[in-house]
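hey can u run this one w/ inosinic acid bound, need the structure tokens asap thx
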Amino acid sequence: MKELVIASNNKGKIKEIREMIADVNLLSLQDIGFTDEIDEPFQTFEENALVKASTIYRFCGKNVFADDSGICANALHGEPGVSSAHYSGSRHDEANLHQLLTNLHGKDDRTGYYKAVICLIWDDETYFFEGICEGTIIEESRGQGGFGYDPIFVPNGYDKTFAELPPHIKNEISHRGKAVAQMVAFIKDKLQAE
Ligand code: IMP
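ok here u go:
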């Protein structure tokens, strides 16, 4: 089976993605012995995903993908966006969620979306895949599942938050689920052509 490294240390993300990929042997950063932090200094998801994927590719030479993702509130012109993981100044999920609620306080427009961009380096070529999930950012946390901003995000077409919906539903409709599905279809094509 071909190996594929996922360039992330985020346990929530790794767990979700493992559930979506069965055709390759998915390796974590721990599995390849990479322990450094990778900076994400850029203002776009694409550039941040590329810097993560290419750093790991240089380290191990294996096929690798990185995703950069975040939540974007329309009333805040797309904030927190690329700053989602440290919006409050710390990397604490709960603090970041509360920062978003504070900044949205009193705003009429509660619409927003999650966005994920995957950068895949496969057999020395670089590819990008994107997924978006639109929804509403509610005023109080609901549910225990998921991670990050999930307790306050209700995807369009549902009345439950991502933290209340079962993981298989979140994986089907989420930004990351959509981006991963495209990447998996692409990898399957590549494997078949070999
Ligand atoms: P990244 O690791 O730089 O991609 O940061 C992603 C950050 O965006 C996470 O730490 C969360 O704060 C937020 N985020 C991205 N995807 C999700 C999701 O599916 N649920 C909840 N929060 C998410």
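Residues 10, 40, 67-71, 84-85, 96, 114, 146-150, 162, 174, 176 surround inosinic acid (CB under 6 Å). anyway lmk if its weird
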